[in-house]
Design a protein that fits this description.
Blueprint lengths: L1 H21 L3 H23 L6 E4 L1 H5 L8 E7 L5 H16 L4 E7 H10 L1 H8 L2 E5 L1 H14 L2 H18 L18 H13 L12 H5 L5 H25 L8 H10 L10 H31 L8 E2 L4 E4 L2 E4 L4 H4 L3 H11 L5 E2 L1 H10 L5 H5 L1 H11 L5 H10 L2 H5 L1 H4 L15 H14 L10 H8 L5 H9 L10 H15 L4 H12 L3 H8 L5 H11 L2 H16 L8 H18 L6 H18 L8 H5 L3 H6 L2 H11 L9 E6 L6 E8 L4 H11 L2 E7 L7 E10 L6 H17 L14 H5 L5 E6 L6 E8 L4 H11 L3 E6 L2 E2 L2 E9 L6 H21 L1
Parallel strand pairs: 2-3, 7-8
Antiparallel strand pairs: 1-2, 1-4, 5-6, 6-7, 9-10, 10-12, 11-12, 11-15, 13-14, 14-17, 15-17, 16-17
Helix pairs in contact: 1-2, 2-4, 5-6, 5-7, 8-9, 8-13, 9-13, 11-13, 12-13, 13-16, 15-18, 15-19, 19-22, 22-24, 22-29, 24-26, 25-26, 27-30, 28-30, 29-30, 31-34, 35-38, 38-39
Amino acid sequence: MKSDLRAEVAAARQALKDEYLRRPDPRTLLTKHTRLVDRIIKALWSECGLASEAALVATGGYGRGELFPASDIDLLVLLSREPAAGEREALERLIGRFWDVGLEIGHSVRTVEGCVEAAAGDITIRTTLLEARFLVGSRKVYQRLEAELGQALDPVSFFKAKKLEQEQRHAKHQDSPYSLEPNLKEAPGGLRDLQVIQWIARASGMTKAGMGRKWSELVQHKLIERGEARQLSQLERHLHDLRIRLHYLAGRREDRIVFDLQSALAAQLGFKDTPARRASEEMMQRYYQTAKGVTQLNTILLQNLEARLAPRPDTAPRALNERFEVRSELLHVKQEGTFERQPSAILECFLLMMQHQELRGMTARTLRALWRAKRRVDGKFRQDPVNRLLFLHILQQPRGIVHEFRRMNQYGVLGRYLPEFGRIVGQMQHDLFHVYTVDQHILMVLRNLRRFTMPEFAHEFPLCTELMNGFERHWLLYVAALYHDIAKGRGGDHSELGAKDARVFARNHGLADDDRDLVEFLVERHLAMSHVAQKQDVYDPEVVGAFAALVKTERRLVALYLFTVADVRGTSPKVWNAWKGKLLEDLFRATRRVLTGEPLARDAALAEKQGEAARLLRLYALSDGAKDQLWASLDTAYFLRHDPQEIAWHARNLHYRVLGEKPVVKARLAPFGEGLQVMVYTKDREALFARICGYFERAGFSIAEAKIHTTRNGYALDTFVIMGQGRDAHYQERIAMIESELPAEAQSEAPLGPPRGGRLSRRVRHFPISPRVDIRPDERGAYQVLSITAADRPGLLYGVARILARYRVSLQTARINTLGDRAEDVFLVSGEALSNAKTVLQLEQELLQDLTLQQAAA
């Protein structure tokens, strides 16, 4: 009998699934699933023989009539008194029967008094009981519960508690729906934001309990308008559809749109891959637009409910101008039709928010009117000189830039005023290093630039703050931020396409020629500085000279440096680190000297570095001649690749053992504030670099930079910057471990073992990157440049080093550039094998094959 009923339940659920996938109708599915479970639960209840004073009550989503395919079935066994021993046994049998037939039950057993007491002390229980729906048993006991809960419920305190709860929930999700794997139930703009409104309305007596509630009920109480109610129903239907499909695809409760399911979900919904965009990216963009709509209407409804339930003390309205006034610290539009009659007031309201610090938001009427009137931002609006001037004024304000641009984006105004921006709202980027949608990344870059102007954040990037304070019209950087990635997803070079858009904007808004050229340069070349810093030798005067020739002026250099720091920091918390910051700063300072008339000739640069290193050595009480033997074994390339601190550190540890037999390994905290710097000095030998990489891999470190040098007397002097081992590992223990273990590894004769490997991130597995390998001569023809792009994973660098060792290719330097889950590494290499074109091709193919196989294995 038990197995028959379980099979019946499973078959009924499968039939519902099949029907839904043929003709998707979320409300019908949720209602039918709820009624199916109702029928089974009532039948099982009738078998258990509980006392007539007990009732079975549906709560939570089940009580609401929104039972999703894999959601828990929340039940309350309601008693008029504490159960006797025999009744407890009957209850246990009942709950066991529910699970036996395949119902995942979340249950509680309480008396009426227990429910009232629990609800008084816990807002979650109070909310769950608010959705209670009678199923079977004693209706009299259930009605007593309803009556006592109704008497105990204070709508005002309930509203305040739910509003605070929503704020805390949003904070857990970084106050943004734009996560890579958003939770469509709990995140901002998710189903919970809709449910909060219904709960507050229910607690206030504006809607009825039970199944089949409609948004039109709120129209009757003048909380929303009919058009907004229809929009809410559409948004809710989309979220319901996504959640139902997620449960079916995962085969369990899954409320996150995880990478594993995004492609399958997009295919179910009919999205197709295009040359410019994945189907999953288009599907996610639609979700983000839905979440944004939910957030907008949630804000309006909460303000209306607050005005109805918990109004602030009345204060006399204070006029700002003939169109707007301040009411309870909120911006209020005096007349409903203001935006329709005077469309320029749309931008004016954001400007007023920036100019009046006492304003903490906009009234519901203002928000609603703004939302309705956004369609007035059309071609005619954009061509109006008054509106163009207003937009420039918004960019030039000393405060509120980030907050108001986010608000303009949230309410669709920014995307209407800049249609090219509107196309990238909610557009995901599966490039493995951006963790934000394109519009959110742009606003994050804007935020980072803005922080450079604020004294309270000067400790974060002192040089950037200093430069920004001395930069005239720093709002031009904000314009560049808006346009630098605005052409993503169009196909072609987004930097060039974005520069064309920026040029049109600058011309339309009357920017001076030099300002227009600066903005266009920043957009077109916004990747140039990070490319040079992370892939070339920033201590080589020729590299610096070439970069200076590209930049041309000090103003451009300062702007590009500020913009690059803000841009890299705005891609992902994992991308920025102190090492990258040091490379950018060193490149900036060296280029600035060239542009201000201090050419970095090789001889001058060499003499300057050696002089500074000698000065540092004297601070350690070393005589001027102590370094001579070591420095005599080093060539010009060594001094150009290393900064004075590194040169002094090497000499201090090696001056008395230049020709030593044993390897010297020294480690220290990296001078720029993150990771460790490790020096290895030993007689050069084949595969030395591969052995060192293998050791760091096994020890759990990742290599951020490697400077490889061979002295004139045949010793390897290699310097590594390494990261990793987690925050719990003490740096002194890590240094001691490296200094004691690495010398033996450097002298080992054991064969090189295979890479340890490791799991790829889930994002890489579902949005893989095709590895690329390229070998070509450098500009001087002295070395070959090996460029590798691949998904980052443990053992990547060691695997490359093993193959290079097999071909007897020597490494001169390595620039290890990890961008989130993406590795873009550049190696300067030499060796006889590289003089043969056929061998070079074979090496490229073997590297590519290894990268592909390792990625597939991971």
